[in-house]
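Dear colleagues,

As part of the handover before I leave the project, I'm documenting each prediction I ran so the next person doesn't have to rerun anything. This entry is a single chain, and its sequence is reproduced below.
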Amino acid sequence: MALDIATKGSAEERLAFSEKHGTLYAQVANVLRQRIRSGQWAAGDQLPTLGELEREFQVARVTLRQALTLLEADGMIWRKRGRGTFVSDGAGPEWFKLETSRDELIHSLEGTWSRIIEVDAEESVPRLDPGDGEAARAYRHMRRVHGRGDRAYAVVDMYLDAKVYKRAPKRFDKEMIIPVIDGMRGIEIADIRQTLTIGTADKQVAEGLGVPIGSPIGILRRVVQDDAGRAVYIGTVNYRGDVVKLDISLSGNRSGGVL
């Protein structure tokens, strides 16, 4: 059975469509992707017809076909000639937890693969915000893609204290950085600060995540301080927008976030 058009919020979504915010088909794809990720459209559900979507979004049919092609490439939908378009199995919510303790964070990185896509030839010093701690003399900068299974979910810009990097360069080039730091002798992690904001994907992030330029992303800035108050690691994690969700309980002492 085909899904009914979701009219609530559709007017606002249509008004938001503009070439200023990236290609129209990418914007439509983001709206449809969010409906699937939120569970509004479940696995096995049939999407509205092209005619129905055309009337809802007020865009050309070729734009809708391009948007659906993006979702099909992501494995979120499948199409059958003469039958329609359907939500794929396993295309529902897939959130990544924003951990609130060091042990939980390190455990959450298990099973994540990492691939370097860029390394700076020269050492540098990144921008530090108040509370980040003192800067090391120099940092090793690299950009990597993180993923699970066959899917990339984040592009990470990371700065690692150059002295720390030189202690285990091969491991830092291949493994998740924070667990390696945590297991090193002579380094005591005193604090890990995390700040989450919302933004859009630039060209490099979009290419790394396999999403259109301008797609919504979650930006998590992570700073690791040692017991001397030095920022030994500064990382900016750019998550795909369809895996970002913040969930905070305001009752009792329980609090937390989910990505």
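Residues 4-21, 254-259 have pLDDT under 50 and may be disordered. The chain is about 30% helix and 30% strand.

All the best with the project,
I.
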